[in-house]
Design a protein that fits this description.
453 residues, mainly alpha
Length: 453
Amino acid sequence: MEAVRGRGGNPMEGPIDRAIVMLAVPMVLEMVMESIFAIVDIFFVSRLGSEAVAAVGLTESLLTIVYTVAMGLSIGVTAMVARRTGERDPDGAADAAVQAILLGLIASTIFAVLGILYADELLLLMGGEPDVVATGLNYARVSLGTNGVIMLLFLINAAFRGAGEASIAMRVLWFANAINLVLDPCLIFGIGPFPELGVTGAAVATSIGRGSAVLVQLATLFGVAGRLSIALRHVRLHVPVMLRLIRLSATGTFQVFVGTASWIVIIRILSGFGSAAIAGYTIAIRIVLFALMPAWGLSNAAATMVGQGLGAGDVERAERSVWIAGRLNFFFLGGVGMLFIVLAPFIVSLFGGDAETANYAIRGLRTVSAGFFFYAYGMVLTQSFNGAGDTWTPTWLSLICFWLFELPLAWALSHTFGLGPLGVFVAITLAFSAIAVAAAWLFRRGRWKTAVA
């Protein structure tokens, strides 16, 4: 309860395991809220048929570009805010947060214009069949056109996490999800006074929920004197800080791009097997993300501990925090993976769909979940590199494991060896397992301890 209320104290003081829990509990709950966005949308959209689900999947693959930039900038702002907080420099932390918001606004404006103008061409480019494009065109336009709320939600919450104010980020997403949960069925099916918008209603509901959350974030930043507080004097272009943020974020963005762009190629490979394969993949991955998002919460806690530990000059505490967080994540994510393997048919049945779509989803969910024990440590370790400001190490890991290993393997297993979509899921599992093993070896070498943020 102390963690949820934001009364966990200074992460650099007291027992390490308690400090991690104080950070991780709200971060895990925050990530649960983020994953609920995906689950709620696909739960209701699946009632509209496989074309609607496929349309959501194709649009999400396009939105990965937005998530890439948002997550890349988040890596930079978390590292800088955490380091300045560890150095007891609140003005520096606020300055970093403002520069991140400015960069996010610029990037999201560009994406919005391109998304609105070329949504149909982009869906066709991703392999969408004509009926899928017709069903999901407006969904894509709304989702891409309002990407700014995704960008700001990610960036501001990343700044809160870096400052150790994880409970604020958590409460913001609670608020957003409450709105989305109510509006989703109302706008999709036209309940009560609301118009029946079909699959487009899911995009409208999500955008309203996230947009409302951004307003709360901004009000909190300007109205509360906490570890991270912005005054009007901070709202300016500060070139040296922005350049430092760009340096960290450019590498971080490329790192995330390597990973998320691989998902675009993955869904392009799957599109050759028909709409049912894409729909099954979309359902399986949404369920997987429901488990991975809380695990990212523990990973983010480790990143904050590393950044603040290095800022305070306590390298030993930073390192021990990572291994403790990894062990906690191992038990959590491993347990969830076992449940998914056993209960896959029941879980997939909750999302409706025809028998072919459900079959793809079940096989995909079981295959990917088999690697959860490896993912647990891999997620914590890669985020810890980022928290230290060593963004190049996980970037190279992603490039090698995803582009040079996962994608060629996915194509070979699905086409050359005739495994179809199952081959793609096997490749995903093996790639994430490989990145975990490599990250552990590199973390023990300790070069991250001398990174600059």
